[in-house]
Design a protein that fits this description.
Layout: H1 6-11, E1 17-19, H2 28-37, E2 41-46, H3 50-56, E3 66-71, H4 77-84, E4 90-94, H5 99-107, E5 111-116, H6 119-127, E6 132-136, E7 142-145, H7 151-162, E8 167-170, H8 176-184, E9 189-192, H9 194-197, H10 206-214, E10 221-223, H11 225-230, E11 238-242, H12 246-251, H13 255-259, H14 262-273, H15 297-313
Parallel strand pairs: 1-9, 2-3, 3-4, 4-5, 5-6, 6-8, 8-9
Antiparallel strand pairs: 7-11, 10-11
Helix pairs in contact: 2-15, 4-5, 6-7, 8-15
The structure holds flavin mononucleotide.
The site of flavin mononucleotide (FMN) has 29 residues, from strand 2, strand 3, strand 9 and helix 9.
Length: about 325
Amino acid sequence: MTLSTAFTEMFGVRHPIALAPMGGSAGGALAAAVCRGGGLGLLGAGDGDREWLERQLPLLDGEDAWGIGFLTWATDVAAVERALEHRPRAVMLSFGDPAPYADRVRAAGVALIVQATDIEEARRAVDVGADVIVAQGTESGGHGAGRGRSTLPFVPVVADLAAPVPVLAAGGIADGRGVAAALVLGAAGALVGTRFQATAESLADLSVRRRIVEGTGAETERNRVLDIARGSAWPAKYSARTLGHPYLDRWRGREAELAADPEARRAYRESVAEGELPALPVWAGEAVDLIDDLPSAADLVGAMAAGAEEALARFAPPP
Ligand SMILES: Cc1cc2nc3c(=O)[nH]c(=O)nc-3n(C[C@H](O)[C@H](O)[C@H](O)COP(=O)(O)O)c2cc1C
């Protein structure tokens, strides 16, 4: 059995699996490996840094089903237009109003994927003409709505609201069972982040990948503390799910105090500079318990698809 959905048909991919466009992890090598494995590989372009893209794009030469994801609040029209010149199959926009970019993407004949972290964002995605909508649950690693919704009830609501536009489920999916569950919930596939962060091709530092392998879901926590400490410009609506961090223990629940304390933020930067604190938080989702190796991403796509097929076949009527 192969799992054919509106998503696999739209992009001509073998499996209903997409790589989340993770800034700092999803570079050209990882996106290409996901393409080779039969999924949709999305580069994590963040704000669209030109030099970074110029280094990563050649690694996708020869691949067809690849795209680029931007942080909507951080990028600009020029960066999106530069990306469109490379003829991606998809541009994904997350975290912010997609309207300033939507028409340009669609006019270029490129599929527009919009990630929604709540119902309002899902409605907005429909309004701007998204070709695919990602319904992101709060279990997810990295950034998402501070007051997010759980994947299980959120995905079917978005699937109903968006129909006939295909929806991908995101948040807490790390194996074939999760992909199967996404399909059962009415999604046309799964967008997977944390699991792909822990692969051979990920750009994440080896120490980060090891922490994901060792970490547990119970240790993950949504917070704004680490963004405030780093002086990051993330809009206040979005928090990030990370593994534990000493600074988080010190400032949990005191975000406003931290924001108003330049001395504390300077101390954080100094501790990072002196190597006492890690340079970046480890962004990871609740499904880290399911991750215990660093496989090739191409093999992983195949294993997740096979696991999903097996999980769904268990419920097929006997021949
Ligand atoms: C390390 C990391 C970085 C991320 N960076 C981005 C990003 O730059 N743009 C984006 O749209 N989503 C980003 N995300 C969120 C993913 O798109 C996705 O919603 C999430 O990874 C799904 O949950 P999962 O991690 O449980 O698979 C990131 C996630 C992680 C774990």
